[in-house]
Here is the input.
Amino acid sequence: MSRSFFKVIISKGVIRVHFLLWLTYFLLKLSVLLFTGERYSFVDFLLSHLLIIGLFYTNAFYVIPFYERRKFFQFILITCIELGLYGAFRFLIKFILVLSIAGVERVTNFRGFTAEVFYLFFQFYIISIAYRYSINRERRIRSIEKEKAIQQDLTIELQKDYLQTELAYLKAQINPHFLYNTLSFLYSKAVNISTVLAESIMTLSDIMRYALSNDVDSRGTVLVEDEIIQVRNLIKIYKLRFNDTFFIEFDVSGELEGRRIIPLIIITIVENAFKYGEFKEADAPMQIKITFGDDFMILTSFNRKKVINKNFAGKGEVGLKNLIKRLHTHYGSRHTYEVIETKETYITNITISL
Here is the structure.
């Protein structure tokens, strides 16, 4: 008997169900005997049905597996031996043990006895086959479900590995040390020429340092506070660049301390809004709102569309597609990504359960 089937039979829940089913069967059989007034020996009734129970489970867990393994000769041989043993034990119970206990003789109708043996044997033999089939079917269903779960987990892991490799590849395109050294050199040259230029270079250096070497934990997340700082740096650069023609409402509410998200989520949305959105209208400023609740974050970006050179249209979609993949891989059903686009406006809503 295989271990899986042994686990099935010793399960407390299964034992309880089997006990109730057999008890119901016995009570119904006794009720029929009492109702019809048919003479019977309780000892004969009890022992013969205990023998049937043994027959049922022997077939289900020992005999039928030979057929499943295509050992047909052994299957037929054991079935015949089992039938012979069942008939012998049934004879001992009915005509020897019961008679000795009752102390009286009974007429032995061997033809009727033989018919009864064959009938009961094959009746419960067929029932045990049906039971074995139902157990096998349940095992196959569970195996398929388990395999699907494993495949889903494997797919998610592969997606994570792919995105991590992709991110590592992008980072490797620029030597961080070379970049930092170059920006430091430019800052040292610009500080005596233009404080605005020097400040812009230093702010850009901070953003690049965060993007290329952010403090990621074992779950692949960073502190929200660090991400917000870099968003403010990005806004600062745009304000320095466009002076009095840059209008934005940037609002962060809720408790930030200790909150973590995967990196470059907020900054990607903001940078994309700057690239494709209109921010030069004082009466219709760009709006970026981030709200933190007890266990969630809501990021909303609203901007009016601006005319874009067709040669550059669509080039920012790579960053957004990568962002959507990363959100799906890390948060799955714990996030929503919604875009509401009209002829003149563009709204992005991201909700994440932290």
Remarks:
- Strands lie at 222-223, 248-253, 260-261, 277-278, 286-292, 296-305, 335-341, 345-353.
- The chain has ten helices and eight strands.
- The two ends are 48 Å apart (CA to CA).
